Amino acid sequence: MKALKVKEWFADGVLRTIIRNAWYLASSKLVGALLGLIALACAGRGLTPALFGTLVLIHAYANGVGAVVKFQTWQLIVRFGAPALARGDVDELRDATGFAFGLDIVSGLIGMAGGLILLPFLAHSFGIGSENLGIAMFYCTLIPTMIAATPTGILRVLDKFDQLAAQQLVTPLIRSIGAAITYFGDFGFVGFVLTWYIGDLAGDLCLWVMSVRELRRKGIHKALHPGLLGPAKRLPGAWNFAWTTNVSHSIWAAWGPISNLIVGALLGPASAGLFKVAATFFDSASKPADLMSRSFYPEIMRLDPTGQHPWQLAIRSAFISGAIGFLILLLVMVGGAPLIGLVFGKHYIEAFDLLQLMTVSLIVTMASFPLESLLFMAGRQRSAMFAEGAAVLCYAGFLVALTHLFGLNGAGFAYIVGICLKTLFMLIPTIWAYRKRHTLSHLIASQSGQTS
């Protein structure tokens, strides 16, 4: 009976759409992950552990700065643009994309300027030596394109997940080719940094080309005229949504880069490299949850939050994702060590111990992916912000304390604590929102009239 009931889930067209779009992204992510491993393998074998760690830290610094200033403009476009497009209101869609583009430009330039100004003062603390300061500052010029999420939002609203899937291959493909050329050509540390830089830039520019082309195909003109004050006035609640999601995701998106920087500061670049290897494998293992989330959010934003459907959809999606997480956990435990040794070499086998600790939280990560989207749907984005903020503060404290006491294993334990706390802090307001779901329409309407 239970098997039959699970089978009936797939009669839900929305669930099938979520799985279909997630599959588009997953298929390219799998290939991208393999290409990414090739790039990391070449860097790991072509550089000393200390230099490999420095490469990781340079990339982590730029990502970390970008994460702090980045607005989640793709979510803003989905939040306002998806319902507008469903109504045929192209003007409101233009306002959403123009406002998002304006936020991307301003935040990108501020992030780049701030990153360049602060780096000379912070480099030594993060384990970046003075001899590599110049190339690290050059890498910071990527920040404006790294953080721009407007084209991603456009393609998601237009349901072009197949193109998003294709774009995901650009950066890892260029990195793997460039890393192989650098490794066999013996171009050293500078060659690997340039490879990472060119790969990131090409992937970002490709996303913009795709979004512009799709807007033209749909006959939606002037959608990328940047603006802040004008579009925001015509989108009630836009500033409130933008700032809340910015703070929320800035806090949590900095998780990975800041973790690398803290480990590097406490244990040195070599340990930061080991932590990066373990985190890379963990991120690859948990990618299905991220892909389900990217597909899940646009779909439930079209549903009525006061009804049962989106909440049932979340439970079913979480169950499927958690089951996939359990299978991935078994694969990691069996094949993780040989794979790390094969890809990175024997110097990095120590990272498997750390990976084993991290994977304890894998099923939690996989099964909890719908929580944030449900809070956004319910107009509880501030609850998501406070949940993520509290979890990151606790995680940072545990990371510093446990890494200081137990080294890399301590960092692994802190990672588990952080994941579990984030899930708990998200789950509490989600349950509350479900119980109060019959009043959500009034809450969302009142929030739409607010401006920050």
Automatic annotation (TrEMBL):
Superkingdom classification of source: Bacteria
Keywords (A to Z) from UniProt: Cell membrane, Membrane, Transmembrane, Transmembrane helix
Membrane topology: Multi-pass membrane protein
Transmembrane segments: 21-41, 47-69, 101-123, 135-158, 179-198, 261-282, 318-345, 357-378, 385-406, 412-434
Cellular component, GO, one term: plasma membrane
InterPro entries xrefs: Poly_Biosynth_Transport, Polysacc_synth
Signal sequence extent: none
Main location: membrane
UniProt key word Transmembrane: yes
Keyword Membrane on entry: yes
Entries under Pfam families matching the protein: Polysacc_synt (PF01943)
Annotated compartments: Cell membrane
PANTHER family: INNER MEMBRANE PROTEIN YGHQ (PTHR30250:SF31), PST FAMILY PREDICTED COLANIC ACID TRANSPORTER (PTHR30250)
Designated name of the protein: Oligosaccharide flippase family protein
Organism placement in taxonomy: Bacteria, Pseudomonadati, Pseudomonadota, Alphaproteobacteria, Sphingomonadales
